[in-house]
Batch of 3 targets.
Target 1
Amino acid sequence: MKTLVACAAVIFAIATVTSADAKGCIKGAVVGGVAGHYAGHHGLIGAATGCVIGHHEAKERARQQKEQEQQGNSVQPK
């Protein structure tokens, strides 16, 4: 239970301190924290890892979406 409370505190701190550049971090931290908690009481490590992975995934999705928009704009009918 202490780990769960600590994870919630870390996630809350991350949510209030970080900027908009942290897309995906909160969602990843929640999932990673829960998974880490149930996989050997390593909730904080799971939350940190989940934050990194979530941020990376959000960044990749944004890049792919930007590329699709650019491809859509480059093909214009005459």
Target 2
Amino acid sequence: MAFRKLLPRRFDWAIHPRWDADRSHASFLAYFSGAARRAGYSEHVRGSGARRENRGWDVLLTDACPDSELKHEIHHNAALLRFLGASPSESPSELWPDDADWSLAETVWRHHGVRDRDLVIAFGLGGEPKRQWPIEHFLHVSNTLSRERNATILIVGGPNERDLAEQFQKRSAAKTVIAAGFTTLRETAALLHRAAIYIGNDTGAMHMAAAAEVKVVEISCHPQNGALAHSNSPARFGPVGIEHRILQPKTALTPCVDGCSASEPHCIRAIEPEQVLAAARELMAEAPVLVSQEAAYERR
């Protein structure tokens, strides 16, 4: 497949930026693409299972980065780019909605009767099954914050999370706006800029919220006593660049050890709604909350 689809395009570079075990076999894909330069992390990095699973794979690369220091994935990517001779910025991630995206966001808020000074709280309900905090807990948190702060709840996510969002809306006592499955990534970014805080699972939407400079309460399935190099570890994949709180189970629940290995919500169930509420209240009390659409646009 790589020979047939990629080889004729004669790529100059193929870059595989995953720091730990290459379980997707992207190094082979890069090799068979025929790219003149093939860059990635060396088989000798200390990521989860990397040395064991990637043994002998450095021969597939022309440029094998020896970065073995555990750090956030953003900083790993920057290290790889520096290894290749680039000078990446160390600034946090960014989003770039265009005028059409901002206009769509305005239309959505106007349609739902959300005024400039109304409080909006973004929720991320989806993600990999083991990363999904129970919807009953989310409902308790949203109903409580809506009652305390008269908040509107914005549900963000992908098309696979639309049904979950609609279940939430049917059972919620709070005013709820569903973007999950209805908006593009850039439109979602424009909507997130309006939120005061994001509360949710470890998903792409969480990282989009952080890039939109929204405070984050991450509900993580990864236990505090888990491996720091694990693919669910907030040390590698937590929010960066903004004020945040990360809630994790204190310990892995049997039979999990280094990280949650279940195929359904398991370790994450140890996190209680009152913990999430306390973290959200703390973040919203630390500084004046940005809630006006005009102020949100000034972030662009």
Target 3
Amino acid sequence: MPVLRAFNYPLLPNKAQEAALIGWLSKCCELYNAALQERRDAWQKQGVRITRYGQQKELTELRAADPEWQAIPAWIARSAISRLEHAFTGFFNRVKRGQRAGYPRFRSHRRYDSFDLGSNRPRIEGNHVCLPKLGPVKFHKYREMRGEVRSVCVRRKPSGVWCVSFVCDLGAPPPKIAPTNAVGIDVGLEAFATFSTGERVPNPRYFARGEETLARRQRILSKRVRGSKSRERQRRLVAKAHEHVRNQRLNFARHFACDLFARWDAVFYEDLDIAPMVSGDVVRPYLAKPIYDASWRIAIRAIQCKAEGAGKLEHACDPRWTSILCSGCGEPNPKSLSDREHLCDKCGLRIHRDHNSGRNILARGLRAVELTEVPEVPRGL
């Protein structure tokens, strides 16, 4: 499989181009909702399933009869129908798996914020992307793209900032190197990560640090008159506060992954199911917000992407009993969530509980990938 990477840049349209982009988003949102209404009514009233191809044919007829729709590039209009098809595909897949299905819903104009150009790849000239029927649109090319552009997506962030994303094919991934060292990682809330070596990475807690600013901006927003310009300005300030926290988390995760593979050839981590954890089914309900703030899933995704591009090894291990079992002798040592130290009555091992988990994760990972020559491997499981 080829390595695909997205290169995101701020888009800098002029006033006329921005007005056209806003109009395109509005029409795409209208088309998405109309297509959803048609599918729902056809199934409820007649038991007929409408496909994407049938709706695209209707769109072609609509464009031929209405000059307003002819002004919108065909690929951009079709992206709304493709998005609806993707939503229904996900709905039916969740039904088959017995999960909470979530039937596709209508979108407001504020929540419909992007469109893609499908296989119609636009021309890129320096720091300009040539969008159909719009001409060259400037973007801030702060780094060079690599590989062949496969698809292009234009998006408007909730704060009102525009951006363009180029998905590029970087070719075949590099071959995996033979690991000479390895590490196990236990993620947590007291520390973001504890390595099998005993090293701990502090938890940045970006949302907790920015929560006061966000709360102040939301209090001001609640007092603004609905529909007023001042409310829209304040809404964008709230959106910028959320975006800032998101960017901080993403930046931290990427630096964390780069540091890992600069030091180790193989990284093993917990295969966590985070959804029941934040719902309170596994841990205490008041820990949901700190778990969201830790953003373990973003860090795991960054580790997977970095390992693929660097030709190094990563593996998700079963997290069950990693805190309970002793990494020195393998005997169970039950402890509550408040017990932060692991003291084994059998072999006398005394370390932090997260350090013990990291050692167990390393041992499980090495056994899963059948590596035995990596030095300093604990006995573990």
